[in-house]
Automatic annotation (TrEMBL):
NAD as UniProt keyword: no
Native source species: Macrosiphum euphorbiae
Keyword NADP belongs to the record: no
Protein name: DNA-directed RNA polymerase subunit
Chief localization: nucleus
Residues in C4-type zinc fingers: 17-40
One GO term (biological process): termination of RNA polymerase III transcription
Intracellular or extracellular location(s): Nucleus
GO cellular component, one term: RNA polymerase III complex
Annotated binding of Zn(2+) 1, by residue: 17, 20, 37, 40
Coiled coil segments of this chain: none
Subunit structure: Component of the RNA polymerase III complex consisting of 17 subunits: a ten-subunit horseshoe-shaped catalytic core composed of POLR3A/RPC1, POLR3B/RPC2, POLR1C/RPAC1, POLR1D/RPAC2, POLR3K/RPC10, POLR2E/RPABC1, POLR2F/RPABC2, POLR2H/RPABC3, POLR2K/RPABC4 and POLR2L/RPABC5; a mobile stalk composed of two subunits POLR3H/RPC8 and CRCP/RPC9, protruding from the core and functioning primarily in transcription initiation; and additional subunits homologous to general transcription factors of the RNA polymerase II machinery, POLR3C/RPC3-POLR3F/RPC6-POLR3G/RPC7 heterotrimer required for transcription initiation and POLR3D/RPC4-POLR3E/RPC5 heterodimer involved in both transcription initiation and termination.
Length: 119
């Protein structure tokens, strides 16, 4: 029972073990690529190998999510102790991050070291 699931947009396929129907995983053995079942001893050597690379998107920093560096330009400061440097003053910004019936989230940025946290 060998069947393939094909996705044309990304050009990959999944093979299933003909003995136990589990997904075959890629494995390198003695310099050759093969598909190997992790449940039973079945394996199949791959003759035409097409290598691909995977790229990841850079995650947004918290500043860009809150409006970038401009979001911190004209904010008020408050007396609160920074956990990083023990400075007694920090800028604060309130943002509605959840539903309207929930309280606003307060983001803090230390005036001294720039450490950020939220409550």
């Amino acid at each position: 029972m060998s069947s393939k699931v094909v996705n044309e947009s990304s050009m990959f396929y999944i093979d299933f073990c003909p003995n136990c129907s589990n997904i075959l995983h890629l494995d390198e053995y003695l310099g050759e690529m093969r598909q190997k079942c992790q449940v039973c001893p079945y394996f199949s050597t791959i003759k035409n190998v097409m290598l691909a690379s995977r790229s990841f998107y850079k995650l947004k920093e918290i500043d860009s999510v809150l409006g970038g560096k401009n979001a911190w330009e004209n904010v008020d400061s408050i007396d609160v102790v920074c956990n990083s440097c023990n400075h007694g003053r920090a800028y604060f910004l309130q943002v509605q991050t959840r539903s309207a019936d929930e309280p606003m989230t307060v983001f803090y940025k230390c005036c001294n070291c720039g450490h950020r946290w939220r409550e």
